[in-house]
Each structure stands twice: as C-alpha cells, then as structure tokens.
Amino acid sequence: MPPLRTRRIRTQPQTSVAVIVERRRSVVTNAVIAIIFFASHLLGIERPLPRPMHTSILSGSLWIDEILLGHPDRCHRELGMSTALFLLLLAELVATGDLADSRFVSAQEQVAIFVYWLVHGSSQRELQERFQRSGDTISRYLNKGLSLFATSSFYDKYVKDPVDYTPAKILEDPRWYPFFRYCRGAIDGVHVLAYVLEQHILRYRDRHGAITQNVLAACDFDLLFTFVMPGYEGTAADGLLFDCAWRSGFALPAGRYYLADAAFPNCDMLMTPYRGIRYHLKEWKQGNQRPVMPQNPQELFNLRHAQLRVVIEQCFGVNKRRFDVLLSRPEMGYEQQALMVGAAAALHNFLRIHEPINDLDDEDDYNLNGHPFLGEREEAEVLNMIPALGAVEKTRADTRRDRMAQAMWNVYVQDHPDLQ
C-alpha cells in the first residue's frame, strides 16, 4: 500500500492580524489621550476646583457685631476700648470723608481689622483667620488704616502742639511752680522693634543689640503726644534726632521749652539736668529707707526735673501697653513701620482724651523687658553725640537753669533749716 501523502494547508500568519488590531487600538488610544489633553487645557479639568479656606460661620462682620453687643470687657480686651468709644471713632472717621463702606467690607470691619492689629500685633495669617478674609483684603485695609490714622486729618487733629499756658500739674504744685511755669512737656527718644533687610541690620542695631527704629517724641503733662518723628535708625542718638527735627521746623513759642535728659543739648527749646549729679528717681530711693535729701541747688534741680520729665516715660509705657504691635516687629516695609508708630500715637491720644485709663504713678520710671529708656550712657559717649550749639545760646540756657536751681534752693532751705 503506498504511503499516505499529507496535504500541507497554507494559512496566513497569525502575527499579521495581531499587528493590525494593535495598531488600530494604539490609534484609538492616542486619539483619546489627545482629546483629553486638549480638553483639560481648554476647560481646566486637570486642576481641582479651588476650595475656599475661610468658610467659618462666624464671619468677621458677625464677630464684630458679637463683640460690640456682648460683655463690655470683651470689647476692651479685643479692641482696646469700650463699645461706645469704638463707635465714636468709627463715626468720626466716616464724618471726615476718609472712610466709607467698600463693596464687600463695611467701614466698621475696616476699622476693626486695623485696631485689632494694633492692639494684638497679630500676623497676617491670624488676621485672615479672625476676620475670615483673604490675605489681599487684610493687607489692603492695614495699609488703608496706616494712611487713615497717620497721615490724614485724624492725625493732625489729635497730635498737635501743646497749648501755650502753664499746665495744671505745674500750676497746682509748689514743688514746680513758679519755677517751671514756661515748661510745656517733655521729650525723649524711644526704640521700637523693627524689621529690616539684612544689609541694613547694622544701621538699625541699637546699643542693647536689638534691631530697632529710634523715635523722637514729645508729650504734655496729660500724657498726650504733641510731636512724633519715627523712622530713624536704632544707632541714631537722641541729640542728633532733635537736631534733625529742629532743622525741619520743630519749635515752640519763644521762652517755652521741653524737659529732656542729658542725651540732649541744653538750649533755648530744651532744659536738661546737670551732668555728673544724681538724677534718675531710682537713685534717690534707698529701698524701704527714707529717700536721699538734696544737698545743694544742683541736686534739688535734678530731682524736680526728673519728677516732671518722667511723664514722657509714662506716655511711652501706656502706649506700649495698649498696642502690642509696637513690640511684635511686623514684617512689612520700613515706611509702613514708621507710619505704624504715628498711627499708634494718634489713636493713643484719641483714647486718652475720651477714655483716660492705664495711668501710671506720678513718680514711676518705665522699664520694658530689660530695655531701659532711661538707661545711662557714659558721659564721654553722651557728649560726643550731642550736636554743637552756638556759644551764646548755650550760655543763655545754662544761666536760665542756674537761676532756676538757685530760686528752688532758696525756697527749699526755708522748709529745711538744717541745710542752711
């Protein structure tokens, strides 16, 4: 039987079909990817929808209403003043035409944002959370508040020259009247913590090592600021600041003067103590023992001078107790930090006039966290920082001081015969 012959059937290779199917699948896949890609860019599908951050039920405006209508102590604690005084402040700012409701933020909330920042020294994030507002909104109304309180008619109304008559504090006390009858207040420099760029740090580092701006300020005996000049480097001496202010028009009527410490020049406008003689109030106290008694006209003059001049330290103290922003070193432009000091001074005067609280004892020095505003300098250091005066003016000022010291002493020894 012949062998069987097998028939070989020729078939198309399987790979060709698979390739065709794979190619078609790849084309469809790429087309879908392209459609999704272009659609995502056109419609923004690739980015999740923005999620609001400040969604608290208690919005800023509702929180302010709750504060103003709630317990009186809450308003004092949160806004630094009573409800009635806050509404008076709001009405006064609106009446001047400098403040009005915006589209989304009422005038009341605008003022509250700025005042809350002054009182608490809060950061931007804390203010955003407190008032449920965006960072742009908070920044906008902080800048508006700086302009409103430090450069507008409100500032001019409340920070102004002292009245030209003998203050009641002097007139009613025989220790000072008639000797200081032409005195209109006290002047000094105060350091406020500052935020500056790294390349400027050395210029703003004060003698205690802190980064500060030096502020020259004067006040009357009602603890009201009468002059504020902020924005100078922490290394600037008080005497040089006064010289700059004087050249810029800072003045008093003829024959009137401010009391100043030994860092300032003794001149027509300023009366300073005798150098090298006991001066600061703490130097006259000996614990629980009786205070040291003056032994000559110069010591008596320095004692009386220190008892009056302490008013400027009290004014600084009350201002820094009211406004924590002066201790918080806010991260903002240096010009804005200077405006912040002026705004705090204007608001301080407003509060002192309408709601005088936070008084200090008459003879209290003010010392904040180991940063003494009355800190003593070496005599040579002080002399090197005082600007030069004309010989005629210096002689005239020294003669005035000597005459006053002797007149005080003549009255004092009548009550203390053992000193004669």
UniProtKB/TrEMBL annotation:
Keywords: Hydrolase, Membrane, Metal-binding, Nuclease, Nucleus, Transmembrane, Transmembrane helix
GO cellular component: nucleus
Transmembrane segments: 27-45
Coiled-coil annotated spans: none
Cofactor needs: a divalent metal cation
Top-level lineage group: Eukaryota
Family: Belongs to the HARBI1 family.
Matches recorded under PANTHER family: NUCLEASE HARBI1, PTHR22930
Protein name: Putative nuclease HARBI1-like protein
